Amino acid sequence: MHEFEVLKLLYTRLDVGDDCAVIPFQDTNLLLTTDMLHRATDFPEGTEAYTVGWRTAAVSLSDIAAMGGRPLGLVVALGAPRFSKEFIEELLAGLEDCCHLVNGRLLGGDIDHHRELTLVSTALGVAKKPVLRSGAKTGDLVCVTHGLGRTAAALKLFELTQVEKANELFRFTPRVEEGLKLAPYADAMIDISDGLARSLHQLSEASGVGFAIEYERLPLLPEIAGLAADERERREMALYTGEDFELLFTIPQAGLEEAQGAVKFTAIGRALKERKILLRVNGKLEELEDRGYEH
Amino acid sequence: MHEFEVLKLLYTRLDVGDDCAVIPFQDTNLLLTTDMLHRATDFPEGTEAYTVGWRTAAVSLSDIAAMGGRPLGLVVALGAPRFSKEFIEELLAGLEDCCHLVNGRLLGGDIDHHRELTLVSTALGVAKKPVLRSGAKTGDLVCVTHGLGRTAAALKLFELTQVEKANELFRFTPRVEEGLKLAPYADAMIDISDGLARSLHQLSEASGVGFAIEYERLPLLPEIAGLAADERERREMALYTGEDFELLFTIPQAGLEEAQGAVKFTAIGRALKERKILLRVNGKLEELEDRGYEH
Q1: Do the interacting molecules here have an ipTM over 0.90?
Q2: Chain B stretch 9-68, residues whose beta carbon is closer than 8 A to a beta carbon of chain A
Q3: How much is the average pLDDT of B198-219?
Q4: CATH 3.90.650.10 location in chain A
Q5: Mean pLDDT over residues A218-242, rounded?
Q6: Where, residue-wise, is CATH 3.90.650.10 in chain B?
Q7: How close B88 comes to chain A (CA, Å)?
Q8: Does residue A115 sit at the B interface (CB-CB below 8 Å)?
Q9: In a designed cystine with A271, which of A140, A157, A262, B24 is the match (CB 3.0 to 4.6 A)?
Q10: B88 closest CB neighbour out of A9, A41, A106
């Protein structure tokens, strides 16, 4: 059995098919999501302890945001080969500051000696009516918050040892406020963790619709322009590198104006009846591959 | 700064002072707890994948039990160097079976490639009136569920390559049922994760009382007798090795009979006004050291 098959099996059993597990509770729903980050894959040379903490909190809070949820709190398991006071204090400050930014709370955690710096954050949230991945309807507008290419740009800057700017980009804001405001309008929502292309495919699988995306409308971060060597790389950064942690959602045309009054976002395409993901570049339609950032 | 000081600092910020973080929610309280386990420290050679999964779920569910809580569900982050179908299926079966045993549910998780097998389980629970570590009162009886020395015995058996029996002992039952039944009677409760001695010190610190424990009354598992080389080792296994995952709690004398009608447990001593942890062995009182199993 090929490893990919095994992972697929595992995903089927562990992946709940949404950004969070949904637990009906009293008259509402609790949301629970967990994410593992570790040195080798998630924190390039130059990542500050504060940024490590921030990003650890942010990835799980972003999952709460993607369901239109309100964070109740976060717990963190930390494994590290050694503990210096400075490192720990900065890490905790990053965790706490990110939580506070979205009205969340660092509630506690567990620590352990571990050969490799490893962090697992678990966020708890609540949503009366969680926005699922499965609600997109033919004709819906496909929209994205803020800009794409944040992590792609940060990784380039780490490579170029421009670590200050790279760290800044790495400390993304979980779109909790946007998620809460969009929840009444959105038919389906997801956060872009593995790249726009992968997230579109995930929405498509869950909702049973396709999408036609206008490449020219993608709100690329200005940082990308100066960092991509050519058009090919620019597209790669915008579509496939991933970890943008923006909200990708669909809304009916009728709700557009009201939603745009509440939150700033960009409509980038439409949901199709046919289950294909199409990208229009220079007037030509091509199929968008189902590949993304491999964590 | 010595590493121990750094860890203390970290504990102060991450440790909530109880087995779970308590989140007041509507007319009740949510409980959230996270635990990291990994190959080097938690799974000796011979630990089956099924046992790895079981124990991963059980450690967090035991924390819910220790607050007198009812589990709502569990999420698990899994990092592993490679994924074989058999390993994954057994691991998931262990996770699921342990959850089902206590009416919990495996809700989802995250997977990641990692050099070392690393699992983090996070359990969500609910308790109208969580039993804290801080409620023990002078004169209370100190009690423990079932038997002590389970992990001590299992570790010995792993060493002796008696892996079947070792795995069986390693798959402990989270005392959820007992916790729920004891909650109305207990003044304070904790699960014994780092050994009876360490847990008594933790209860003492939180409650501001001391304890006098009768060594002869400790309900040692029968397995210990045949495995300890001498009396010194027997005491070590009973008091310090830890990971018994039994409930240690205090109740007023007046509640004893009723509580014993609901749950089987053993009274092993009394809470004292003076903040000392005393052990009576052969009629002599000695102070019980504050040391335990280092994970």
Answers
A1: yes
A2: 9-11, 13-16, 20-21, 23, 25-26, 30, 32-36, 38, 40-41
A3: 97
A4: 141-287
A5: 92
A6: 133-287
A7: 7
A8: yes
A9: A140
A10: A9
Q: pLDDT tens-digit profile of A138-160? A: 999 999 999 999 999 999 999 99
Integer CA distances (angstroms), B148 to A105, A134, B33, in order:
36, 49, 23
Number of CB atoms found within 10 A of residue B98's CB: 28
Looking at domain B3-126, does it have CATH number 3.30.1330.10?
A: yes
From B123, B102, B234, B238, select the one nearest B173 (Cα to Cα): B102
For residue A134, the 8-state DSSP code is T
Q: Does A97 touch chain B (CB under 8 A)?
A: no
Taking an 8 Å cut-off on Cβ atoms, the answer to whether B75 and A115 are in contact is: no
Q: Which residues of A touch B11 (CB under 8 A)?
A: 111
Instruction: Check B83 against A10: CB less than 8 A apart.
Output: yes
| CATH architecture for residues A141-287 | Alpha-Beta Complex (3.90)
As a whole number of angstroms, the distance between CA A23 and CA A124 comes to 11
3-state helix, strand, coil in chain B (%, to 5): 40, 30, 30
* Strand ranges in chain A using DSSP code E only, listed in sequence order: 21-25, 28-38, 70-80, 106-113, 118-126, 141-145, 188-191, 210-214, 247-251, 265-272, 277-281, 284-287
In whole angstroms, how large is the CA radius of gyration of chain B? 19
Distance from CA of A277 to the nearest CA of B (A): 26
Question: Does B21 contact A73 at a Cβ distance shorter than 8 Å?
Answer: yes
Residue B35 with chain A: CB contacts under 8 Å = 77, 110
Residue in A with minimal Cα distance to B105? A23
In this structure, what token pair is assigned to residue B261? 């009608």
What is the band of A82 on the pLDDT scale with cuts at 50, 70, 90? Answer: confident
CATH class, domain B133-287, is: alpha beta
The answer to whether the beta carbons of residues A72 and A126 sit under 8 Å apart is: yes
pLDDT at B171 over 50: yes
Chain A CA closest to residue B117: A114
Could you give the count of Cα atoms lying within 13 Å of B143 in the half-sphere of its Cβ?
Answer: 29
* Nearest to A124, CA basis, from A44, A20, A208, A224: A20
Separation CA A10–CA A232 (nearest Å): 34
**Which residue, among A77, A63, A79, A66, has the nearest Cα to A121 in the 3D structure?**
A77
pLDDT at A253 over 60: yes
Q: Distance between CA A145 and CA A140 in Å, rounded?
A: 16
B222 touches chain A (CB under 8 A): no
Does residue B20 contact residue B69 with C-beta atoms inside 8 Å? Answer: yes
Phi first, then psi, for residue A230 (nearest 5°) are -155, 180
- Cα separation, A181 vs A128, in Å, equals 13
Q: What are phi and psi of B59, to 5 degrees?
A: -65, -40
- CB contacts of B89 in chain A (<8 Å) are 9
Measured between beta carbons, which residues in chain A are less than 8 angstroms from residue B59?
A: none
Top residue of B10, B26, B133 to mutate, by most chain A CBs within 10 Å, is: B10
